[in-house]
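Journal club prep, shared notes

We agreed each person brings one worked example of a sequence with its structure written out as tokens. Mine is Molybdate ABC transporter substrate-binding protein. I'm keeping it raw so we can talk through how to read the token line rather than staring at a rendered picture. Sequence first:
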Amino acid sequence: MTALFRLALAAWLLAIASPTFAGQATVAVASSLQFAFPTLVERFRAQGGAPVRINYGASGTFRRQIAQGAPFELFLSADEQSVLALHEAGFTEDAGRVYAVGRLAWIQSAGRGALPSEEDALSAVEAAIAAHRAGEGRPRVALANPEHAPYGIAARQALEQAGLWEASAPLRVMGENVSQAARFALADEARGGLVAYSLALAPTLAERAEHVLIPADRHTPLRQRMALMPGASESARALYAWLQGREAREILARFGFQAPDAR
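Then the structure, token by token:
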């Protein structure tokens, strides 16, 4: 680790550690939850829960930050591996709990072209590749970076299974997380993108976009796990317990997440 990187990390840790409310829970939250989590926190607070400081990002990035000492108390990952790897290395209190199962979706701007059927969900990618090969421009295909985003891994797996990963290389644009990938997917130069179903359902995107689910057998199941860090506050523990309850699961279902026991 370079001296410059250590200095930058120390400054960042100090910034997120600065208290805003007494008893506040500091939480690292996968970007696939960017629209669902505020609703969860609103209901938690309405029932007497403490304030929550939310940090959104890619699960793989949070995994590295926690291993480097980031003072998060609770981590909601978009996959299981990030949490389990942290637990094995001693950075979480236990192996945590699977709180939801996500789905991958193709999203595109309304009117951008024919929306694929679920049976042929990647036909829009095939059409983009064909247009590029015919010299009709470079219609971008967005996804989250598979290096640190679970939904990016799922997108790559779906493209590989369809034999489109290599062919789509000139068209791919990577988001640092799945939320950024969704924004890229709706840009003027994009044909669309592979993002979290929960983002496709969000009102701010749904009003100007169309989507279709990618069949669940096209990628590894997106089992999303959460865990507490050692020494987590009572506020974080209360949130962690509440997120395992019925009301939280009902809210997550409205945003396209399946309950972990539904599979």
